[in-house]
Amino acid sequence: AARVHSCFGMLTNQDALAFPAWLASLLRPGDALLVSANLSPRGLAMDGARILLQYDNPAARAWYAGALSELGLPASAYVLHVAARPLEGGPLPGLPLGAAWQVTVQAVLNRSTALAVQGETVPLALGERLAVFHSLRFTAEAALALLAAAGLGVAERWVGAGGEEGVFLCGRP
Question: What stretches in the chain show pLDDT beneath 50?
């Protein structure tokens, strides 16, 4: 019997090329996949500053700080940097620069410190950058290209009124 798989909220935090290929590998003939993507209607140059505000605000910064605190890193030991940048190397040749981009949050250490992880001490040097969070964004066209590169055909797509959320109904051609 044909199956319907759903994958919501995952594409934005996985490897842009490997994860869709892995999803495609799960499908048998006749199966369908519903996958969501965070979208950027016009790409990084036009949308980056506006979308970045969703990730760089007091509530979001408190959330990042909470995760670091759980690791034992005091707020006085780092400065958070929230930035938007194009995905390095594409993810696919032929896409315009900024059609696929990433929000990154890093904690930059302002002093040397150490963390205890599973009974081991991990030294951290002044200036070291710890990746705290990332989120991928794609134009709808870049999302279609990414899914096609993974061997997925898109039968339908639905994009929210603001253009920042999309759901794609995929199958293996």
Answer: none
Ordered DSSP codes for the chain: ---EEEE-S-GGGS-TTHHHHHHHHTPPTT-EEEEEEEB-TT-HHHHHHHHHTTTSSHHHHHHHHHHHHHTT--GGGEEEEEEEEEPTT-SSTTSPTTSEEEEEEEEEESS-EEEEETTEEEEE-TT-EEEEEEEEEE-HHHHHHHHHHTT-EEEEEEE-TTSSEEEEEEE--
Q: Could you tell me the pTM of the whole model?
A: 0.87
Q: What is the pLDDT of residue 1?
A: 85
> With 0-12 CB in 10 A as exposed, 13-18 as middle and 19+ as buried, what is 126?
exposed
Q: How far is CA 105 from the centre of its chain?
A: 11
Return the structure tokens found at 99: 């059609």
CB 91 within 8 A of CB 102: no
Q: Which residue has the tokens 């760089």?
A: 56
Digit-coded pLDDT (tens) for 57-74:
999 999 999 999 998 999
